[in-house]
């Protein structure tokens, strides 16, 4: 795509709600005044004693599929540098970001826009721009990343290391919560996990009631660690059938379970629908670090969590490549991917 088209496609140069089409049909609009924000998801202090920590994490995974963590061990200073590096990337001129713009999902490093397309409806572009690229725990991946902003490669490498350690700790706690050995989930997700960074930029929007920043979705991976801008609300999560807003807590990460943990836990832990909304005054950034299986991994309910009488398997086992293929097939719709792998009882 050439940069002139990109300027329009990324939607914020110039800021206009009319071209391309950012305006959602009425039934898909956010109805922001109906969304409460107080105490929406649990906040868990990772410094607590292990027993109560496992209990709290387990309860949050069962009831919410989402929680925030504080005292997580990643330094505030590094988080600030990571946020600034991403912010500097989105501040690059459109021509420069535009060289990475593509609709091709197989490209590991790419800038793109999300969209929604209902049956027989016009395509609606989301009021955001997304920059996705791999991260790794051991391999050097930084040569894949842009050389501009100049600090980007170094900061992401440092951040990835810290997030890798936190991911591992969270997976242990979640395994323990399910009554499994601490390394069970990490082992089942596999040795060579699929690790993707997704940085989302939401520019201020002239009318946040008409559009969304990201469509309603569940994360397709296993676990997500999300850092969000301070002082700007944007993330909404479904709780008991209603939307609630996640208030950004200083120095906290938002943790959410992806579809693969819902399947591995045989439905005990939830991968919950969420969306991002826009706001009028301030730009907002969120940085999601995804951890999931690679394409060759078999995923299905963990044997120890299944029995014939009370806990029959809710999903069939599948190759993660097949899950991904189904995910891409449902592009633009309110995806029902894991439902395709559900067993009827
Ligand atoms: O911006 C947010 O808070 C949500 C991001 C998100 O859900 C995602 O990247 O999958
Ligand atoms: Fe998400």
Written description of the protein model:
The chain is an alpha+beta fold and 345 residues long. It has a single domain, classed as Jelly Rolls (Sandwich), CATH 2.60.120.330. Helices cover 27% and strands 20% of the residues. It is built from nine helices and 16 strands. The strands form four sheets. The chain has an eight-stranded mixed sheet. The protein has a four-stranded antiparallel sheet with strand order 8-13-10-11, with no helix packed on it. A two-stranded antiparallel sheet has the order 4-5. β1, α2 and β2 form a beta-alpha-beta unit. α2 crosses α5 and α3 crosses α5. The protein starts with a helix and ends in a 5-residue tail after the last helix. Bound molecules: 2-oxoglutaric acid and fe (ii) ion (FE2). The site of fe (ii) ion has 3 residues, from loops.
Helix- and strand-based class? alpha+beta
Number of strands: 16
- Percentage of residues in strands: 15-25%
* Count, helices: 9
Given this structure, which CATH class is correct?
Mainly Beta
Assign a percent range to the helix content: 25-40%
Shape: globular
Q: Which consecutive residue ranges, at least 5 long each, have pLDDT under 50?
A: 1-15
- Going by CATH, the architecture would be Sandwich
Mean pLDDT: 91
Largest sheet properties: 8 strands, mixed
The CATH homologous superfamily: B-lactam Antibiotic, Isopenicillin N Synthase, Chain
SSE pattern, N- to C-terminal: HEHEHHEEEEHHEEEEEEHEEEEHH
Strand order of the largest sheet: 1-2-12-9-14-7-6-3
Small molecules bound: 2-oxoglutaric acid, fe (ii) ion
Q: Total domains, how many?
A: 1
| Terminal CA distance | 48 Å
Assembly of the depicted chains = single chain
Q: Any idea what the radius of gyration is?
A: 20 Å
């Amino acid at each position: 795509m050439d940069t002139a088209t990109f300027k329009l496609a990324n939607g914020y140069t110039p800021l206009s709600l009319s071209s391309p089409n950012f305006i959602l049909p009425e039934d898909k609009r956010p109805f922001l005044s109906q969304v409460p924000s107080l105490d929406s998801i649990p906040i868990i202090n990772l410094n607590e004693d292990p027993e109560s920590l496992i209990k709290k994490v387990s309860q949050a995974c069962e009831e919410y599929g989402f929680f925030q963590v504080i005292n997580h061990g990643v330094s505030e200073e590094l988080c600030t540098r990571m946020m600034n590096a991403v912010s500097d990337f989105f501040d690059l001129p459109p021509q420069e970001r535009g060289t990475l713009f593509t609709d091709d999902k197989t490209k590991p490093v790419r800038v793109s826009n999300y969209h929604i397309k209902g049956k027989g409806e016009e395509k609606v572009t989301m009021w955001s721009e997304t920059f996705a690229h791999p991260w790794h725990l051991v391999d050097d991946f930084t040569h894949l990343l842009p050389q501009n902003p100049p600090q980007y490669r170094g900061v992401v490498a440092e951040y990835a290391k810290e997030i890798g350690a936190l991911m591992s700790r969270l997976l242990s706690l979640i395994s323990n919560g399910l009554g499994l050995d601490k390394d069970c989930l990490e082992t089942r997700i596999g040795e060579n996990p699929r690790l993707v960074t997704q940085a989302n930029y939401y520019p201020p929007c002239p009318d946040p009631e008409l559009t969304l920043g990201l469509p309603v979705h569940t994360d397709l991976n296993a676990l997500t660690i999300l850092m969000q801008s301070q002082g700007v609300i944007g993330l909404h999560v479904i709780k008991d059938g209603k939307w609630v807003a996640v208030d950004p807590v200083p120095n906290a990460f938002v943790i959410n379970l992806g579809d693969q943990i819902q399947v591995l836990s045989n439905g005990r832990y939830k991968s919950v629908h969420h969306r991002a909304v826009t706001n009028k005054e301030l730009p907002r950034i969120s940085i999601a670090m995804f951890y999931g299986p690679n394409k060759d991994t078999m995923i299905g309910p963990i044997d120890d969590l299944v029995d014939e009488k009370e806990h029959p398997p809710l999903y069939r086992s599948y190759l993660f490549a097949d899950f991904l293929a189904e995910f891409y097939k449902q592009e633009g719709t309110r995806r029902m991917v894991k439902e395709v792998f559900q067993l009827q009882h």
